[in-house]
Amino acid sequence: KILKDLEVPLNKKIRLIFGTNEETNWGCMNYYFKHEEAPDIGFTPDANFPVIHGEKGIINFDLVQKLNSNSCGNIVLESVEGGNAPNMVPDYCTAILKVKSDDIFAIEEKFNSYIKNTEYPLSIEIKDDRIKISGEGISAHGSTPEKGHNAISYVMKFLGEVLNGDCDVCKFIKVYNDRIAFKHHGEGIGCGFKDEISGKLSFNPGVIEGNKDEIKLTINVRYPIKSSSKEVYDGIRENLKDTNVKLIERDGESKPLYMPKDHPLVEKLMKVYKEATGDIDSEPITIGGGTYARAMDNAVAFGPVFPGQKELAHQKDEYISIDNLMKLTEIYARALYELTR
What is the 3-state secondary structure (H, E, C) of the chain? Predict the structure, then answer.
């Protein structure tokens, strides 16, 4: 609207495309580009500044163990559940144990001692012969699992203290604790890849569901630009071949995006950013997040989070400051002007 009101001469048409399905299966973009011609160039304001010239590949998959039994001695794991979505660090997890009355006091004592030693954010509720273990975490985007506190890992670590036998449930818990818990880059489960362009793989155990028949853990992985989903799957399967845990692939892989730093689109947007902010030292960056830039050729993500600004994506009460909104308006107006010259 600023450009229109200023009657700036434009050599290209500007199109604003809204999507409504970015966090799930991108049905909006798939539909749009089946019915409309794709723009020649573009940017998406749903990431970070200065310019995102590369995005890691994204896959979701399940690690599943079938259970012949959900008990270990006198302890039965009736259920375990946690997390809201694969691409979010889970901020809650609960497990329900059925325990003989004679053993409840011993487990409560072990829990209190464990919390004293670890200070993990866990709580315990006892009602009749049921014990509920709850973990409270801090959510973060699945592309940066190290920035959150994973509630599933907190609960699984304690369960490993009381379910430590040779049963099916115990074996799954041990696999989780030895190879997954608090390891954010896949280094414990055969996929600790990295490259010089996009850095380390990101590994986020986002959702867990368990009952008497099976335990299923849903993982979100952001693999480096020079790697592939096949390498990730092959590495994990090789790592798990001594277990009964099976990897089940899910549809919807998002291939990596990469545009060289000297691409005209990247260079123009970097010029705009530096002129508008005075930040002349920043360089184009790569991220683990997935943006709508992947929906078309010749597109990159550009803003809106400034360097050093607190990352609020996927957080409760997500917001943007008015000062930043005004600065973004200036930057995006300049960018549209440069791209239409």
Answer: CHHHHCCCCCCCCCCCCCCCCCCCCCHHHHHHHHHCCCCCCEEECCEECCCEEEECEEEEEEEEEECCCCEECCEEEEEEEECCCCCECCCEEEEEEEECHHHHHHHHHHHHHHHHHHCCCEEEEEECCEEEEEEECECCECCCHHHCECHHHHHHHHHHHHCCCCCHHHHHHHHHHHHCCCCCCCCCCCCCCEECCCEECEEEEEEEEECCCEEEEEEEEEECCCCCHHHHHHHHHHHCCCCCCEEEECCCCECCEECCCCCHHHHHHHHHHHHHHCCCCCCCEEECCCCHHHHCCCEEECCEECCCCCCCCCCCCCCCCHHHHHHHHHHHHHHHHHHCC
